[in-house]
Each structure stands twice: as C-alpha cells, then as structure tokens.
Specification:
The structure is a single chain. With about 375 residues, this protein is mostly helical. The chain has one domain. The protein is about 50% helix and about 5% strand. It has a four-stranded mixed beta sheet, sandwiched between helices. Bound molecules: zinc ion. The site of zinc ion has 7 residues, from strand 1, helix 13 and helix 14. It comes from Nocardioides pinisoli.
Length: about 375
C-alpha cells in the first residue's frame, strides 16, 4: 500500500538519554513502555523513535540533532518524563494529527509563525521551480498549544481512533485522557508546554488513493512544526535547514502529482527508500541550482542528513529512508545534476529528473 503521508522530519532512532535519567524515570513511571510505531501510520513520528531510544538506548549512528534532542529529554523533570512516557500517544501525536485532520491554511491556529517569511518565500519559489500543479497544496504550521486544549485533544484522538491510527478507545476514555493531558500541560512551565519534541515534524500529505472517507476528504497539505524549526536554529542550520526540508517535502508533492508512488518496488521498505532518496536528490537539485536557492551543496547535504535519518537502524522498516551514505550519494547526485545544467539556468522538467534518478538508483544504493 502506498504511503500517502510522506513524512519528513525524521531523526535517528538511537537518541540517547543519560542512563541516570532513564533510571529515575523508570522509578517514577512503573513500567516505561514505548509502543513501537505501527507498521503503517499516516504520519511517522520521529519524536516517538527518539523516546524509544531514550528508554532503550541503541547503537545507531549519530546526527547533528542528537545532542539537541538528548538535551530536551534531559531537561525534563522526572515527573514530566514519566508523564510523557505514560501519555506518549497524546503528547507526541496530537499536534501532528490535529493539523492533519483539522488544520486549514486560513485558520490563525495553524498560521506560520517561526521562519514564516522564509518558508512562504521558499514555498512560492518551489511552485515556480517545479512544473507541476501545486496551487491546491495548503501550507500551514503546527503548534504545541493544541495540547493545552482538552477539546482539541479529544477531537484529534477521536479522529485517530476512527481512522485506525490508534486502537479503539471509548468516548469516555478519550474524554478522560484529553482532560488529563490538558490539565497537566496547563500546569507546566513554558519549556515543557512548548517543547520542540511535540512538533518535531514536517510532512507532506495527499489523500490520493485513500479509501477511508475521513482521510480521503482531506486536502493536500504541507505542514511545518515549530519544533523542527527550533531544532535547526539550535544546531546553527536555521538558514538552510528549513528551506531544504521544505524542498524535500515539496518533492513528495511532485511525486504525488506524477504518480511516482504508484510505480515503485512492491517491498514497502524498498519503496520508501526509493521515494525518500529521490526526494533528497530533488531537494538538493533545487537547493543548489542557480535558478533555485543556489546554496552550497555541503550545507544542503548536512541539513538533509541531520534530519532525515529515521531509517538508519531499521533497514526492513516501511519507514526506512536509506543509510546516511545512500542519502549523501542521493544529495550529491542532485547537486551534480544542477551543476551540469547547460545553460546554467536550465531547469529540467520534474518528470525528467525522476527518470534520470531512476536510472542511477541502483548505483546510489549499492554497497
Ligand atoms: Zn520524506
């Protein structure tokens, strides 16, 4: 089944938490148990992978963002961390799914705030750069304040249950969980209320091919979380990172438009790796091209690799994005294609870029 919601933010599954904090958190929360993400969800939740890594540290490779994410966990009190473990489905998913199910581009609750002008300009520039129909994509933000509002939490959990994103919960259980989370969040300091982990995400969504009536009715979206923007600012990539992520997410919309998801390998892990590496290549092509952002290719690759590494340790997972080496090769491939443009201002049709990428994919993933 094709993954309609192409997620972006991903970071490494092996985020480490200082062992001492794991110990105390384990005491505070009787049985910290992090449910693995389901086989196929509408949106991947990178913070969920990070939480898994925090509770059971793994040996996965590190990215520029790891230290930043470690610190977000370390800065929580034991009570906060225990609450997060116990209510992870709400804290790590509600802002994402609230925007997916209820966000609209014109609603002030979903207005871009951080990096707003930069994101809007890049979005318009991408619409000009790629020769596809993109007027119908809604660009919006997701903020963590949905977690302060029991009504918003409840409607989001209900929609997640109705669409199978969460196992069954009764209306009463949903209402209780929503009230518990909203009440706890309202009593926390700003650092916890606005923790980047709740919105450490950016994703492209298209309902094309979906049969669930709730999902099929949703418009095309490109959603940016405040958390991913804060993370890039914190690691010194606030200038390049958000624009490159935008380019990667926009590439997924190009893929939706051209039916690229429909003609890939049948193995879900291989299929995801193909479309993710292709999105990296297209992001790099745009970001380094003279008619695109004309950015330095090393910085573009740093920005891509720091974030889109969710699959590093899960090569058979449907969420696998490719190894860091494969991703670097894909990004280099896009930069080389841009550098080879004759004349320099020539932008290839999206269909042609994809075709050329397919020809070289075997080499990009070799070894
Ligand atoms: Zn992606």
């Amino acid at each position: 089944m094709k993954r309609t919601l192409q997620w972006s933010a991903a970071f490494v599954a092996g985020t480490l938490l200082p062992l001492g904090l794991v110990g105390t958190a384990a005491t505070a929360a009787p049985a910290p148990s992090i449910a693995p993400q389901s086989e196929r969800s509408l949106v991947e939740l990178p913070a969920k992978d990070a939480l898994e890594g925090a509770v059971a540290p793994s040996e996965c490779g590190a990215t520029l963002l790891d230290g930043y994410i470690d610190q977000l966990f370390a800065d929580m009190s034991d009570v906060q961390f225990a609450f997060l473990v116990a209510h992870q489905d709400a804290l790590l998913a509600v802002p994402t799914y609230d925007a997916l199910f209820f966000g609209t581009a014109g609603d002030p609750d979903y207005a871009l705030d951080s990096h707003a002008a930069q994101l809007r300009n890049t979005y318009r520039d991408l619409q000009r750069f790629w020769d596809i129909e993109s007027d119908d994509i809604q660009l919006m933000a997701m903020h963590s304040d949905s977690l302060l509002d029991a009504t918003r939490i409840a409607r989001t959990l209900e929609a997640m249950v109705d669409t199978g994103e969460l196992p069954f919960m009764s209306d009463a259980a949903i209402a209780t969980e929503a009230q518990t989370v909203a009440t706890f969040m309202q009593a926390q300091d700003a650092a916890f209320q606005d923790n980047p982990l709740w919105t450490l995400n950016a994703y492209a969504f298209s309902a094309e091919g979906e049969t669930d009536p709730i999902i099929a009715a949703l418009p095309d979206k490109l959603v940016f979380g405040d958390g991913i923007l804060a993370a890039y600012d914190a690691i010194g990539l606030g200038d390049v990172g958000p624009r490159v992520i935008m380019a990667h997410e926009f590439a997924h919309h190009v893929q939706f438009e051209l039916g690229t998801f429909d003609n890939g390998p049948s193995d879900p892990a291989e299929a995801t790796r193909r479309t993710e590496l292709m999105a990296d290549a297209m992001a790099s092509y745009y970001a380094t091209h003279k008619r695109g952002l004309a950015l330095n290719s090393k910085r573009v690759t740093d920005a891509l690799l720091s974030f889109y590494t969710v699959g590093d340790c899960s090569f058979a997972s449907p969420g696998h994005h490719g190894t860091p080496l494969q991703r670097e090769r894909a990004a280099d491939w896009g930069a080389d294609l841009a550098a080879a443009a004759q004349p320099r201002s020539l932008v290839l049709p999206a269909e042609r870029v994809i075709e050329l990428f397919e020809e070289d994919l075997a080499e990009i993933i070799s070894g």
